[in-house]
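REQUEST
  id: r-88c1
  op: predict_structure
  target: Response regulator
  payload:
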Amino acid sequence: MALEELLITLAEPSPVQAQIITKALEELGARQVEVHTTGEELISQARERRPNLVISAYHLPDMTGSDLVQTLRGSSDLYDLPFILISSETNPERLETIRQAGSLAILPKPFDGPQLAQAMQSVMSFINCASLGAEVDADMALMSVLIVDDSQTSRHHIRQVMEKLGFEHFCEAASAETAIPYLEQEPFKLIITDFHMPGMDGLDFARYVRDSQLQPGTPVLMITSQNEPASQEDLEDAGIAACCEKPFDIEQMRELVRRLLNEY
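RESPONSE
  id: r-88c1
  status: 200
  body:
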């Protein structure tokens, strides 16, 4: 699919901001941009005419951008829509909710052309992502992936990306503690864990995986975010094979996973 083929739906209450964003998208090649002033209006229209991409401000008259993306992720028909936030909001906790829900990009107001172009490149990479099947030395249909994250929406987004890459079998755990029994039950080709979780965090979980020798040949990929950085020393000490920051670019994730599958 090409950019000019996308149906983009935008939730933006300000006519001026809506015009700025629409014009910037059109300059990149977009041809179909629908503007809505409320979240409910966007959701209702999306159910009648499914878009390829949702873009939203954070502050809407009837809900926040966080509420909107959570509603989308919790619905049976719109849960997999790519999402971008464009907002002047800088509160780390509010933005973290957006990251956890799998936003492909978070742009500031005002944004510049290169920032929007990079965000749209992430969208196109996500939509057109190809399976890794031909690039790895094993049958991906036989591989299992363990996803550990206390956020259900984050687990869902990670799984969605992994499915695009060609994986078919998954186990999901909402904490490191509940993930441990899975390590004892079946071998995994890849373990993906969030960094910040209640109880045992991602670093401690990775150390457990390494020290227990339950999955000695399985790489651990850690997902972090901007407000919870982990030092390179900590990552190496815990035996982390690779690290990716939210919101992650799918091409970056694709290359990391391809490398891990071929090295381990």
